[in-house]
Amino acid sequence: MAWMDYQIENFYDEAFVSEGHLRPGSKLLFQCLCGLSADEMGRYQALAEAALYRMGITFAIYGGSEGAEKILPFDIVPRIIESSEWAMLERGLKQRAHALNLFIGDIYGPQKILRDGVVPRDLVLSAPAYRKECQDLRVPRGVWNHISGTDLIRDQTGQFYVLEDNLRCPSGVSYVLQNRRVLKRTLPRVFDVSKVRAVDDYPSRLLEVLECLAISRQDNPVTVVLTPGIHNSAYFEHAFLAQQMGVELVEGRDLVVHKKVAYMKTTRGLRKVDVIYRRIDDDFLDPLVFRPDSRLGVPGLMECYRAGNVALANAPGTGVADDKALYAYIPRIIKYYLGEEALIPNVPTYLCYEKKERDYVLANLSKMVVKATDGSGGYGMLIGPAASPPELALFRERILAEPRRYVAQPTIALSRAPVLAGDHFEGRHVDLRPYVLYGRDIYVLPGGLTRVALKKGSLVVNSSQGGGSKDTWVLHD
After folding, report:
1. Are residues 330 and 355 in the same domain?
2. Which part of the chain is the Circularly permuted ATP-grasp type domain (predicted)?
3. What SS3 state is found at 241?
4. 34, part of any domain
5. In a domain, 437, yes or no
6. Which residue among 61, 184, 258, 376 has its CA within the 20 to 30 Å range from the CA of 461?
7. Neighbour tally for 158: CB within 10 Å
8. CATH (domain of 360)
9. Same-domain status, 150 and 264
10. Strand 248-250 relative to strand 223-226, pairing
């Protein structure tokens, strides 16, 4: 397949410097792909999709008419990140994870950053994910955010920005691992000649992080993955990670707390549990502390956790740090705790709860992206340039009614990467979600999940909104 007719347009392209001219890290990949015919590429794409289908790599769609489960669309052309770029991103992600961990511990402890006026007290305490029940919690090894996924984008200049942080129950890493397996099988010759950093050890690294939290029982601690059940959108991932780590996948009904100790029900009786990798939101974790109507959690689990008899990852209350309003303060948070400038900048963000910034947003609504501070999955947001007058009017009303609930950002022309479009390549917008593990030290999985807006011209990459994914190749030096 030829790439000479590939069109860059007015976007930063991940593979091409200009039309007909590849970036250094992409030359070997596209030289290999160029040796394949359009029919061969189409066949390989179909083989990859069939392999993903057989693996059952699905996500649930809520409220749709297409059925409860969908296969995540996959594009066979990998995204390339060169080693020097990745080294910069890795440093910035570690910096961010470290600072956010200190921030969370401070918020639920002495609250020095609030007393010093670096972050407004009312903004923190009004965050939907702030949990007063977690005040004065002592967490194992002082780590709250054991697993995080940080969404990155590039603008037209090639500058990386952090778009948002995900510290509650970040999902998607199973797609990273399975995409890699499928592509290695589908394009083995291409993969073999490329110097790509491995991602296969993520489950073992995750298990190492979880087991290091069992401070009272370092020898063979019992670890489980707690899932809401088969109807959750990320259930495939819960089951996959449990299987890969060699630990039990449990639901709330499989656990019980007795005398402040957590146990798993087995056919041989109760077995003490030391670490729970919970994929359940705080609200549903313990009906005695959070939502009393929850049937997904474990009564008494928070009392057990406070007593130090079980470790939870991520720690309850961690979501306060990925509130989209508090996001605007993260460069100040990094400076406050680490004395450093943020290595990866934020997208400029306007807080609608502040009158001056709200007035600016309302005056420029057709140019802005407006997000609910507690929204996710591409829902509850407005993309101003693509919105109709009624949609703009509706969001104006929403912002005026609940200003704390909304932030706005300028529309960023996301970078693009080539995708297979029939018998040729076309550019589609992408973002990147690297995964960070925080245990005895901080580890960043090389690459992460590249999400791609498969619909031509779309800026929305979320799988729930028609997006797909690519394998992400971080090159060795």
Report:
1. no
2. 78-453
3. helix
4. no
5. no
6. 184
7. 11
8. 3.30.1490.270
9. yes
10. parallel
Q: What is the reported pLDDT for 65?
A: 47
Mean pLDDT over residues 192-207, rounded?
94
* Summary mean pLDDT of the chain: 92
Q: Which two tokens stand for residue 382?
A: 């407005």
Residues 358, 279, single domain; the answer is no
- What is the count of structural domains for the chain? 2
Three-state DSSP class for 386?
helix
Identify whether 402 is part of a domain: yes
Distance of CA 67 to CAs 59, 61, 155, 380, 449, Å? 11, 7, 35, 22, 25
Residues 320, 246 share a domain? yes
Q: What is the DSSP letter of 322?
A: G
Q: Looking at the structure, do residues 357 and 285 belong to the same domain, yes or no?
A: no
Say whether 26 sits in a helix, a strand or coil: helix
**What is the percent of the chain with per-residue pLDDT over 90, rounded to a whole number?**
78
pTM, 2 dp: 0.94
Q: What is the average per-residue pLDDT within 172-180?
A: 94
365: nearest Cα among 402, 346, 391, 347: 391
In this predicted structure, the answer to whether residue 277 has a pLDDT above a threshold of 50 is: yes
261: three-class secondary structure by DSSP: strand
Q: Residue 394: how many CA atoms within 13 Å on its side-chain side?
A: 10
- C-alpha–C-alpha distance, residues 96 and 118, integer Å: 17
- What's the distance, CA 248 to chain centroid? 23
Residue 356 makes CB contacts below 8 A (sequence gap 6+) with none
What is the domain extent for residue 364?
350-410
Per the domain annotation, does 304 fall within a domain? yes
| Residue linked to tokens 């605007």 | 328
